[in-house]
Here is the input.
Amino acid sequence: MLLKVTVIVLTLLIGLCVGSFLNVVIYRLPNSMSLAKPKSHCPNCNYQLKWYDNIPLLSYIILGGKCRNCKNKISIRYPIIEFTNMALWFLALMLNTNFIISSLQTNYLMFALTCISFSVLLCVFCCDLDNMEIPDEFQLSLLILGIVGFLSSDISASSKVYGFLLGGGFFGVFALLFYLIKKKEGLGFGDIKLMAVLGLFMGLQNTIICIILSTVSGAIVLFILSIKNKGEKNKEYPFATFIVPCAIISMLAGNFIANWYLSLFGAV
Here is the structure.
């Protein structure tokens, strides 16, 4: 029991600390800034944060969401990203650990890969939302995770290869057809690459689920936004903001969703 509690607490704390670092990555990487220098500071008054000003979640609460020096408001987004990453790491632990039996059984490789992939996807979501762009560093990271994932027996190698081909191929064909019909870009190349490398990591089943969820949710939301912003005909929207949450859902609940769908036809 003590071991289980210790593992959970450590996962939450490390996930929270990594979430704090992700705030730096999300802001600096798209702007071609060093991740190490300068040290964390207030963007309004350039006050250099002390270690006690930079404690994830806790410092934000103690400071009341304001800079210690100039009292300028600190974006609520910082603690949200920290908390979200902590929650995602906890879910990754639940996904890869059997807590029911007395002994703690964890697939440590997949646990580590899942945690890293969730953190990278969180960065992808924020960067695409902010800049309509997915830095290649994130794509490469997910590609490496997918390749390392071949060492795990959870998902077959053939399923990963098929996921890679389907993920990139489906959105690639969609983008090509959209361009031929509408004579304009309907899906960015970054989204195509993202779905391909995710397919390599998730495998065929979860890739199919992710494609369905992201295209349906994206179509519904973008249709509503197109009506609301009907005066802005050429307005573009970040599609990775649909891919990322749907990919996470697929990784966490892909088997449940697949079994539920098949049960509708009496297949399981």
About this structure: The CA atoms of residues 218 and 242 lie 6 Å apart.
